[in-house]
Specification:
alpha/beta; 8-stranded mixed β-sheet; globular; 40% helix; 288 residues
Length: 288
């Protein structure tokens, strides 16, 4: 992907990877991950005539670590909107988010709907429509561990063994997870303060419900990707349909939480399809 570029947005210096030219597509990663997670999707988008930009989320090396936070979902959403303003030349963009990137996307769609052509989320249904049930709480039990004081030290143990454990737990059908998949995030977490910042996302999340920015209906056209083998069952994406006043599509694809890495060709083809369909039908799209 080449060396990262840098942009100052929402008061923070963000590193980002970039590929292609055309309408802007911003892709946000989650935990435990980095912008490199999108390398194959970015290549497919670039080949399809889009400018794919993947920032390293706040606190993730080489993006700046904010001295005093915050890491709440509303701030992550404002980060995304600010990046779009800085890189999008005044045009709305497609926003793609996985995991915490999806959470940021839901907030961004509520806070700045005029800046988005399309919201695409992976692995996280709209938090504003989810109710805490025992099965869901068990699937999200890592939230409690990562909020604890000393969580970063435990994650560093045994060459970040907990990172590999999470990837295998969340994508259980991925039998032969290569070490190269988790190597980029382990390298990022080796930089001082990065892992502590990543854990800060979990401490900023209220256990009483979703972020206030995620409690209003979303008018932005939205496509949610659900992994058939994910810890979050695909049926939950249908249960949150009432959270949308704009169009809403659920795309079920093979794989677990990291569906875009586990089955990259299938995911990339579907991503390009939905982006093409929505950008082509968007009256604000620039002529090609």
């Amino acid at each position: 992907m080449g060396d990262p570029r840098f942009v100052t947005a929402n008061g923070l210096r963000f590193a980002y990877l970039e590929r292609g030219s055309g309408p802007l597509v911003v892709l946000l990663h989650g935990f435990p991950d980095t912008a490199h997670t999108w390398d194959r999707a970015m290549a497919a988008l670039a080949d399809a005539g889009f400018r794919a930009v993947a920032p390293f989320m706040r606190g993730y090396h080489p993006t700046e670590i904010p001295a005093d936070g915050p890491f709440d979902s509303a701030t992550l959403g404002r980060d995304a909107l600010a990046i779009i303003r800085e890189l999008g030349a005044g045009e709305p963009a497609v926003l793609v988010g996985h995991d915490w990137g999806a959470s940021a996307g839901y907030s961004a769609a509520a806070l700045g709907p005029d800046q988005l052509r399309l919201l695409v989320t992976l692995a996280i249904p709209n938090p504003g429509g989810l109710k805490p049930r025992p099965k869901l709480i068990w699937a999200l039990r890592h939230f409690f561990r990562l909020r604890r004081r000393g969580a970063a030290a435990k994650i560093r143990a045994e060459n970040y063994a907990y990172i590999d454990e999470l990837w295998r737990r969340w994508s259980p059908a991925w039998r032969d997870l290569p070490a190269s998949e988790t190597a980029p995030v382990k390298a990022a977490f080796a930089h001082p303060g990065c892992l502590e910042a990543a854990c800060g996302y979990y401490r900023a999340q209220s256990l009483r419900g979703s972020d206030p920015s995620q409690r209003k209906p979303i008018a932005v056209p939205t496509v949610s990707f659900a992994g058939l083998h994910d810890m979050i069952e695909p049926r939950l994406y249908e249960k949150v349909r009432h959270c949308y006043t704009g169009s809403y599509e659920v795309v079920q694809v093979p794989g677990g939480h990291f569906m875009h890495r586990e089955h990259p060709d299938t995911f990339a083809a579907e991503l390009v399809r939905v982006v093409r369909e929505h950008v082509r039908s968007d009256p604000t799209s620039p002529p090609k």
